[in-house]
Design brief:
Layout lengths: L2 H13 L3 H20 L4 H24 L8 E3 L4 E3 L11 H11 L3 H13 L6 H21 L10 E3 L2 H8 L5 E6 L16 H11 E11 L3 E2 L2 E2 L2 H11 L3 E10 L14 E8 L12 E2 L2 E2 L4 E5 L5 E5 L9 E2 L7 E2 L4 E4 L3 H4 L15 H10 L5 E4 L6 H8 L3 E6 L2 H12 L8
Parallel strand pairs: 3-18, 4-5, 4-17, 8-16, 17-18
Antiparallel strand pairs: 1-2, 5-9, 6-7, 8-9, 10-15, 11-14, 12-13
Length: 429
């Protein structure tokens, strides 16, 4: 490939000032990148083309950040040119996802941006937009951490303890004192946790000791897949809980509404286990009834098997609530949930504050919220031995439960305390 041509394209990108011109260069670069990759050109050429595409995306992000949309067609002054305001992103030929990603890339300082491109090329690695997105997200996370560090004084108390959870339970918690435990342990090192030390057997033994008779432990966990083989760690943990005396009261499923990537060669993993262990029979169960009833009234004829093997038909035409029909917008009321919960996940859907995402693996607030409602009553003590940034504790506080959380990382504990301090008019532990 003629690198002189690429230099001309790069020069054209530097001179481009409109969204249309920059996006045209970006799109053509992406098409060319895919072509040279398909025909087997070397990584140097691929990265050179991708660098042009990434620079175009960064510039598009800068323009979009400075351009007002949906303002009725008045002109907008950007850092590059005075141009008309577009009513919709679609008018620009840009999806909302693209706009978000490009604006995020545009927040990377130019020196860090160019350094990443240079290092990736020199180390003979493939340059990708996703790599730049990871850098942008990390920079945002670092900025939020720095902001929290610079707040006036640390927040103390609020039921959050920085300690090794096993040691804390052994030394500071009495037998039979906890009504409900909700926690999400590390998943086969699927995430990098700061200060992570995980001994699930010791944790399980202490949880059994401190749980009241009839108390419940909700253990939210998933498995890693290595070389096409799922580890099965979650099942081993569940069997160990049974071995030390817990009942496996229910194996529930948390079904995610979305995933950040799709698998190739297998079905995409989109659920996690929520093992519900109990110390004897659960003393509390408040079923959530928010599933729509699908039908009302007659089901027509029902076949009933007799002892001799023949079938008799039972006419249900006049049984039920009236004429039959499909449910529409809860028209026929609600029924009790099943043990598969579909819950919206993701940074913008799972939390009602913007600092929870400073933890690498938070779960949506709805998970502990709904388990708290199901397995406890107001005034009960809710415990999380690996509380991270305090999602379980926050939902316990909102639902007028007492709460206690332990985490080995002080930065996560500080975030948890700040999230709890944002919740008012509820009980504190």
């Amino acid at each position: 490939m003629d690198l002189v041509i690429f230099d001309k394209v790069r020069q054209a990108l530097e001179e481009a000032v409109t969204v249309e011109d920059v996006k045209s260069i970006r799109d053509k670069s992406e098409v060319l990148r895919l072509y040279v990759k398909q025909v087997g050109e070397g990584l140097i050429v691929q990265n050179y083309i991708c660098a042009i595409k990434c620079r175009a995306e960064r510039k598009l992000g800068q323009i979009l950040q400075e351009t007002e949309l949906d303002k009725g067609g008045r002109p907008s002054v950007t850092g590059f040119i005075v141009q008309p305001v577009f009513k919709k992103l679609e008018d620009l030929g840009i999806s909302k996802t693209q706009s978000f990603r490009w604006q995020l890339i545009s927040t990377i300082p130019e020196d860090i941006f160019e350094q990443h491109i240079a290092e990736t090329t020199s180390e003979d690695r493939e340059l990708t937009s996703m790599g730049l997105l990871r850098i942008a997200k990390q920079l945002k996370q670092d900025q939020k951490f720095e902001y929290l560090r610079n707040q006036e004084g640390p927040i103390e108390g609020l039921g959050v303890i920085c300690a090794d959870c096993v040691e804390y339970m052994r030394k500071n918690m009495d037998e039979n004192c906890v009504d409900l435990t909700i926690t999400s342990p590390p998943y086969d090192n699927l995430r990098e946790f700061q200060g992570d030390s995980f001994d699930y057997k010791s944790i399980a033994k202490e949880l059994y000791r401190i749980s009241k008779p009839g108390a419940v432990v909700v253990w939210v966990v998933g498995d890693a897949t290595i070389d096409g083989d799922e580890t099965g760690t979650s099942f081993r943990q569940a069997l160990y809980f049974k071995e030390i005396g817990f009942k496996l009261f229910d194996t529930m499923i948390y079904r995610k509404t979305g995933t950040s990537f799709l698998h190739t060669g297998r079905y995409t993993q989109i659920f996690e286990y929520m093992f519900v262990f109990s110390k004897g029979k659960p003393k509390t169960f408040n079923p959530i009834c928010d599933e729509p009833k699908l039908w009302e009234g007659s089901w027509g004829e029902l076949s009933v098997r007799k002892k001799d093997g023949t079938l008799s038909k039972r006419n249900l035409e006049n049984e039920g609530k009236g004429s039959s029909g499909r449910n529409d917008n809860f028209a026929y009321g609600t029924k009790q949930r099943t043990n598969i919960w579909t819950i919206r996940n993701g940074n913008s859907f799972g939390h009602t504050d913007d600092i929870a995402v400073l933890h690498p693996a938070t779960f949506p607030e709805q998970i502990p919220n709904d388990h708290i409602i199901s397995w406890s009553n107001p005034g009960d003590l809710i415990f999380d031995p690996m509380c991270g940034v305090g999602t379980t504790l926050k939902m316990a506080k909102i639902n007028n439960r007492n709460y206690l959380g332990v985490d080995i990382n002080e930065e996560y504990c500080q975030i948890a305390r700040r999230r709890l301090a944002m919740v008012s008019n509820t009980i504190e532990f």
